[in-house]
Amino acid sequence: MTKEELKNFVSVYNKSVRKGIKGKNKEGKDVQEQTSWAFFTREEIERLLEITDPKSGGIKIYFGQYDKENLDLVPKDRKDREDYIGMVSLALSAANQKEDGIFDVFDNQSEEVSDTNSIANGGKICPPYCQPPINI
Asked: Its domain of life (predicted)?
């Protein structure tokens, strides 16, 4: 995920769910059951943490929403990709805390880290991926 893709992903969320407007599914109908959880692998989280400062680093979590225009952010091997349309999800961004705020690594201007490897998206969300079914 690039910085520009992150902006677009968050923009869809800001224009609808954040304002209380229901997302639209693949048929253009209101989403009746919104995301309950998102899962990211330990490997992905550790990969992001490795590019942050060992003492002040962490992960900034952005809320976003899938639509038909950004569906390519969902991994191509997911059989249920179109069921992600209208669903809220998360993007994780490697970040460092400083005195004047919390800054994404991609804003660091470091030549060692690009925006595409400092942001993670594509976690599994429920629904549509609810294995096992929600039990809480």
From this structure: Bacteria
- The two three-digit tokens of residue 122, written as one number: 């594509």
H helices, E strands: number in the chain: 3, 6
Which residue type does 71 have? Answer: L
Nearest to 89 by CA among 78, 102, 105: 78
Taking only the tens place, the pLDDT of each residue in 26-48 is 999 999 989 989 999 999 999 99
Question: The whole model's pTM is what?
Answer: 0.84
For strands 124-126 and 119-120, give the pairing.
Answer: unpaired
Q: Which amino acid is present at 121?
A: N
Peptide bond into 132 cis (omega under 30): yes
In the block, which residue shows the tokens 């995301």? 35
The CA-based diameter of the chain, rounded to the nearest angstrom, is 47
